[in-house]
Amino acid sequence: MSSISPQILKKRKRHVLIALISIPSILLLFNLWGWSFYLQAKGFLDEELGKRLISIAAITSLQVSPELIKSIEERTIDDEQAFNFREYLATVNEENNLESVFIIDKEKNYILDAGYVHLEGEKYHCLNISDANRILDASLGKSSCSKLYRNGSQMFKTGFAPLKDASGEVIAILGVDASPEFLRALSNIQNTLIFFGIISLVLGVLYVLVLLAVINGFEAMFHAEKFASLGRLSAGMAHDIRNPLQIINTTYESLRKRHLPQDIEDEMFDYIPDEIKNLNKKINDFLSQTKDTPLKIKLNNLKVLLNHIIDRMSPDMERATIRFNNHIEPKINEFYFDAQQMEGVFQNLIRNAIEAMPDGGVITIKAYPYKGGKQFVAIEIADTGHGINKRDQKKLFEPFFTTKEHGYGLGMSIVFRIIQKHGGEIKVKSRPNQGTTFTILLPWKQEG
Ligand code: ADP
Ligand code: MG
């Protein structure tokens, strides 16, 4: 048994709770900081690249005369002129590290693509709305650029500049497409951030699950420790009461010998040994409940045990006008548990259920294989009594917690301890004025 004091356990629980909140918060802050840095850097680079593309498009557009555009559209351009123009656009492309330079008409059909990727007359595909809006800007005479957009694994940005005739009317649009190296870096940073986000999420969830398990462990230790203190306290009390009782008994025998002849009966004298016996029995009962006896695990039949308990308690139930339902799935026959201690568990739970229904009601017991993946038997004990409010549910398994005028508040702590020793769990669901259901999960050990 652990000897950690409840205060230290409470303190540790508080520390674990602080860790539980702080580590995921740090992970979250770290991720948020990463994303805000990424968005700021992206915004800045996007803006700078935009300015550069607009100026390249605008400067290049100054070198393109409206006659040239007309001659290309009307296919009257001679080969040398065409070659020179393409060479010029190719140089702009190369010197500015662009992906492509192209000219489209106001209906967004290609007039020329310096990289020969698109044919004349082919439709220019806007990759997003922003792109389409910027083309509209350009067709209204204003240089502009698209937002950053993704095409496959690469990120792009396009600058547009209007090509105008002598009267200032827009006759075509010149576009410059760029996918510089740093955009690849941005894309990598984004992928890394997504990766870290997923890893943080998985780690955060695992971490919370582990800490919750640790907190549950503390809770179990906390109850175990309280129960052990209770055992020590009652053993000490029993010893202190039994000693004077022993003295009273011997004194009684001496007094009787001295003052009462052997053959004479005196009722008054008999009260003393009777009451001593009575007191001793009460002490033994109390001790047997609070003593943390090791389990004697054997192959036992749950149905037989429950039927035996119900038989013994049925007079109490009849008196309290309580009906009883019982359903134990046939699959659950014999498995390993301590029948004597589990009898104590069921008796405590059924007694509490009876006491929770002073005007009668129904007790239902069910046993079935647990459906949560573990090899457990689930045993439900439900009543239609006055229920337990949320605040009391938290204290339910603490020794000496009682809401009854003549209660000791020991039953539920004993129940908790016995189930804990079996490696099981007990859960409670309750609604005030509707009833309470206790669900016990016991390891379903069918082999020794
Ligand atoms: P006691 O029965 O001596 O009060 P227990 O440890 O058996 O001590 O129960 C502690 C408290 O839990 C009870 O006083 C009662 O408030 C509550 N309780 C336990 N079982 C039930 C139940 N089935 N319905 C309503 N309250 C319950
Ligand atoms: Mg009780």
From TrEMBL:
<dbReference type="Pfam" id="PF02518">
    <property type="entry name" value="HATPase_c"/>
</dbReference>
<dbReference type="InterPro" id="IPR003661">
    <property type="entry name" value="HisK_dim/P_dom"/>
</dbReference>
<dbReference type="InterPro" id="IPR036890">
    <property type="entry name" value="HATPase_C_sf"/>
</dbReference>
<keyword id="KW-1003">Cell membrane</keyword>
<dbReference type="InterPro" id="IPR004358">
    <property type="entry name" value="Sig_transdc_His_kin-like_C"/>
</dbReference>
<keyword id="KW-0808">Transferase</keyword>
<dbReference type="InterPro" id="IPR029151">
    <property type="entry name" value="Sensor-like_sf"/>
</dbReference>
<keyword id="KW-0812">Transmembrane</keyword>
<keyword id="KW-0418">Kinase</keyword>
<keyword id="KW-0067">ATP-binding</keyword>
<feature type="transmembrane region" description="Helical">
    <location>
        <begin position="16"/>
        <end position="38"/>
    </location>
</feature>
<dbReference type="GO" id="GO:0000155">
    <property type="term" value="F:phosphorelay sensor kinase activity"/>
</dbReference>
<dbReference type="InterPro" id="IPR003594">
    <property type="entry name" value="HATPase_dom"/>
</dbReference>
<keyword id="KW-0472">Membrane</keyword>
<keyword id="KW-0597">Phosphoprotein</keyword>
<dbReference type="InterPro" id="IPR005467">
    <property type="entry name" value="His_kinase_dom"/>
</dbReference>
<dbReference type="GO" id="GO:0005524">
    <property type="term" value="F:ATP binding"/>
</dbReference>
<dbReference type="GO" id="GO:0005886">
    <property type="term" value="C:plasma membrane"/>
</dbReference>
<protein>
    <recommendedName>
        <fullName>histidine kinase</fullName>
        <ecNumber>2.7.13.3</ecNumber>
    </recommendedName>
</protein>
<dbReference type="InterPro" id="IPR036097">
    <property type="entry name" value="HisK_dim/P_sf"/>
</dbReference>
<dbReference type="Pfam" id="PF00512">
    <property type="entry name" value="HisKA"/>
</dbReference>
<keyword id="KW-0547">Nucleotide-binding</keyword>
<keyword id="KW-1133">Transmembrane helix</keyword>
<keyword id="KW-0902">Two-component regulatory system</keyword>
<feature type="domain" description="Histidine kinase">
    <location>
        <begin position="236"/>
        <end position="446"/>
    </location>
</feature>
<feature type="transmembrane region" description="Helical">
    <location>
        <begin position="193"/>
        <end position="215"/>
    </location>
</feature>
